Amino acid sequence: MKKQILRSIVLLLFTLQAAWGFAQNGPSLPDQLKNLYGIASIESVKSEQYNEKYEVFIEQPLDYADTTKGKFKQRFFVAHVGYDRPTVMVTEGYSADYSANPRYREELSKLFNANLVFVEHRYFSKSTPANADWKYLTAEASANDLHRINKALRSIYKGKWISTGISKGGQTTMIYRTFFPNDVEISVPYVAPLNFGEEDGRHEPFIANITGTPEGRKKVLDFQVEVLKRRSSLQPMFDSLCSKDKLMFNTTLDEIFDYCVLEYSFSFWQWGTPLDKIPTLDSPDSTIFKHFIAISSPDYFQNTSPTTSFFVQAAKELGYYGYDTKPFKKYLKIKKAKGYLRKLMAPEGSAPKFDKSLALKIQNFLDQNDPKMIFIYGEWDPWTAVAPKFSRISPVIKGYRTNMEMYVQPQGSHRARISSLPEPMKKEVISKLEKWLSE
């Protein structure tokens, strides 16, 4: 009996040793990546957070419905922890430049010691097609991009996958899960909007009546009015700044000044600026101007910027917010603010009339299903006004939802993350994710 047990132990050790030897002598991660379909190039990049990290380019079709329309190279990063670990897929809505930083580590990847696949959105930074038509910049195409990368990398990372993104990236997470519900096991969109119009209409009343406190909202409004009242002294400072920074606009500097005042309240609440940062109304012009520009810089309204592609998407199908001009009417140079997105930021002819079918498709998916999804929002963030709606009891799915959940950081902003939630809420989120990863 003892000899039999000893033989079993020896056999087990031999098997483990053979497996370890295979793992050590098997194909390297770069070699595995190179062998994936469509991979154009791989380059090792420095990382202080992961065992290995690579910048990868993959050839993607411009048009998935007609692949003869051409291709472009899309960038993504692969940061490796272990083949036995889960994988976090960041569905970035913009450029991936910041993820190249050696110190960068995404929140979920850090929490669960997971591999990272960070995908740059088409038409941004190094993933911008050459001379491509704007018509190929669609939400469905971006979902197909992600699907193709996921499908390829699943042959390497076979554990559970989590898709996640922040703001427009979170919106992309919702889009991806809607078009390809089975690509990932879990989705965690952060501060993700679901707009039903080019100017949705829910942000303005949120800013006027809900965010912050009544005293705080009044303080913000009073500052905006004060800036307009001081136009004669502040406008020359504003014009000088725009000239120095060589900013170009589709309208006059007088009008851009107005738009910056209107944008101030959205930006203030979005980024959680402390109320005590607002100067007193009797402060000198220089103090008023410095704070005003720090919160609402005119470069946002440039007619060309690294985020032009986003403005095209917003005007076309992602939606955006509008401005309430009523409190400022007697001070403004502009007659109306409606249509400012196309007038100022989206190139002429780049976006057809807004189509809300994408938002309806996403909302319909959430209404009729109960995917493993956790939504994170900040209570005072204006984007929370357009968070997706779903009830715990769903007549559509005929029962109580056990998966989809929304967590809102009290007094939180667009910076709301799992780590910023109150401790009991944070523990609940982590526990739920741990449970799903272990199933």
What does the model show?
This protein has 439 residues and is an alpha/beta fold. The protein has 2 domains: 28-196 and 360-438, Alpha/Beta hydrolase fold, catalytic domain (Rossmann fold), CATH 3.40.50; 203-345, no CATH class. Helix content is 39%, strand content 14%. α7 (214-229) runs antiparallel to α9. The two termini are 37 Å apart.
Structural topology:
Layout: H1 2-25, H2 29-34, E1 39-44, E2 52-61, E3 71-80, E4 87-91, H3 107-111, E5 115-119, H4 139-153, E6 161-166, H5 168-179, E7 186-190, H6 203-209, H7 214-229, H8 231-244, H9 253-270, H10 285-295, H11 308-318, H12 340-345, H13 357-368, E8 374-378, E9 393-394, E10 399-400, E11 405-409, H14 423-438
Parallel strand pairs: 4-5, 4-6, 6-7, 8-11
Antiparallel strand pairs: 1-2, 2-3, 3-5, 9-10
Helix pairs in contact: 4-5, 7-9
Short description:
InterPro entries: AB_hydrolase_fold (IPR029058), Peptidase_S37 (IPR008761). Helices cover 39% and strands 14% of the residues.
Order of helices and strands: HHEEEEHEHEHEHHHHHHHHEEEEH
Q: What overall geometry do the principal axes of the alpha carbons give? A: globular
CATH class type of the largest domain: Alpha Beta
Name the beta content range: 5-15%
The appropriate CATH architecture of the largest domain is 3-Layer(aba) Sandwich
- How far do the termini sit from each other? 37 Å
Give the low-pLDDT segments: 5-23
Largest sheet: 7 strands, mixed
Q: Would you count the extended β strands for me?
A: 11
Q: Number of helical runs? A: 14
Radius of gyration: 25 Å
